[in-house]
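User: Could you check the structure of this?
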Amino acid sequence: MKPNKGFLQLRQRIDPVTKKCHAGPAAVHFISFEGRMVVIKWRLYLLLAVAIVHVACRKLFPTPAPDINMFMIFTGFVVSSYKNNEVMGTQMVGGLAVLELKFDSMDNITEDSLFYRSIRIARQLFKWSECSGQRPEVRQRSWVVQVLVVSDDPEFLAAFARWSVRGRLLVWQTRLLVVTRLSKSDLYDLLAKHWTFVMMNALVLNLGNAADGGEERGSLYSYLPYSVSGGKLERLGTWTQKQGILLQAGASLFPQKYLNFHGAPVNVTALPFAPYWTVEEGEDGAGGGPPLTSYSGTDFLMLHTISEALNFSINVLPTANWGEVTQRVEERVSFMAPIIYAVLPGRLESYDYTYAYEFASPAFCMTKPVLKPQWQSLYYPLSTLVWLSALAVLLIMPPTFSMMGRMEGRGVGGNTGVAIAVIGTLLGQNLDQLHSQSIAARLLLGAWLIFAFILGTAYRGNLTAALTLPNYPPRPETLQELVLAVKRVTMPPYGAQFRDFYKQSDSEAFRALARIMDIVPSAQDGLQQASENRNNHLIPPSLPTRQAHIQARRYLELVVAEEFTEADGSTRLYFGRESVFPGLSAWPIPHDAPYKQQLDRCIMAIKEAGLYEKWSEDLMEEARKEGRERQKRILQENRKQEGEADIEKAPEPSGNSPKALTIVHLQGPLMLAALGLGTASVTFLGEVAAARWLWPREPSLK
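Assistant: Sure, the predicted structure tokens are below.
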């Protein structure tokens, strides 16, 4: 039997066992091969397997595809053209690298063993760039990578499957071909137990024992985890030396596995985190079963929409804390944690993320500055320069009127009377003493009246605005202002990761934030402490006393709306204008999850359609409404206890509703009135004392 021309050309390019590799496209090859006693015979199967991969590549990529690489690992014999130290040093000839593995048993494989280190090398193998001399990572830079595993030892294949997941050798774009000789039942048992063969893009060529002189034949299989009948081993076609690959009708090499889950349950982990994920316990199930649980929130609604698009059911696994939520994802027990998680460098070492769909930047929330008692409220309506100008005019006008009255030959009540008359006109009093016959005096009086009218009108208008809209003290709006204004910042338990992240920052503001950050059990505790720890104005501004809480802005807005909002819609808390740092957020998924592409596509479609924002707005409005109604009920109960009659309806919140002025607003006028009353009382008592003790009494007439 003579191989065809295409097979001979392929053999000349990739056969490292019998000859040197000829020049060809840059490719790195690793083949897992096990078994000494069939070395010569398995070399032929090795080339046949490479031919399968080559044909599959041609079918999937009809046009020349750049950076299509193949990894090959040999075990059981030494290739004379290569040395182990050359392999470990990533020395390659003609774009081909070969490793020799020694495999005894799975129990002997550790992270320090050659087996695992070889898989890591396969992932991190470098190739020299002819142009720049740099060493880019093949797995990260290549578009498609082919991995070929050749063995008839189930234990070896199981070890490869387990440690390739741990070594992160495969992604969905990586095409794995397993060439073996196992019975169908053994093959099914092997594939069904391992994530690598079940979930990844894997194809199996199961060769049969050919008779002497007979044609080599093999069957192509792929394990489909999701189908109408559940997980199954699907036969895709056959392979022969003469005819090559013969696929069954409707079958394709390396089929997609995650376009349709056929209603299968998908494990997820999440904990309540409103408004993204909320849980409500319902009534007991039928037949005395466990209570029915209903879920809501923006992220659950997005997950529910994705489940309808990909046709799977949601199975929420029970978890005790947030650490267990992501731990289940790392262990691949949970397919995803469909709850918003900030993308941090430290977290990327444990799991990957989906498409970043939300800028859930951490925001800080704290109490609004307390309005200080302002006895200067009478002074605020006009600026200092206007007050000085008005005082200058007020000092000039009385002597001017007195001088003009003397020039006319008549008095106007003396200097005291003129001053009282000028001040009276400024305050809207009559003009009994300010009248004259001369044109000059009338012009002066007209100018003064116009000045008094404009100044009085402006003052009264600005006084009303200053009393109803007081000028609050400045409050922190940025991170730099926050670390200078507060002495303590709180975050929930997962904030420890953020604190470590801030400590490693080059920014002094972030490092200062990490120094004053404490962990509290929940957002409610942090906001409660922040609302109770108000600013003490008796302490100098250089000594910060206030406290703030940091968490995702949307979540804090919901908590404030539900638990820290009054019946009229007002709240004593506020959010900083700027976020702590701009942070992307996404769902945690296992490293190199093969279904990431489908999740990203659905998430992107939902985000671009505006559904996520619409869900968020609806949930926030509902939360605000429930918060106001709860405050109304509390107010009504308090009124009942106090014996008030009119308790049927609480006032509706309105942005234009009038607000009563408090003692804080009117402290200035009251202090002025008290000062005038005190001065008058002292003067009156002085006059009485003087009349009694200093002035002599007139003798009485007899």
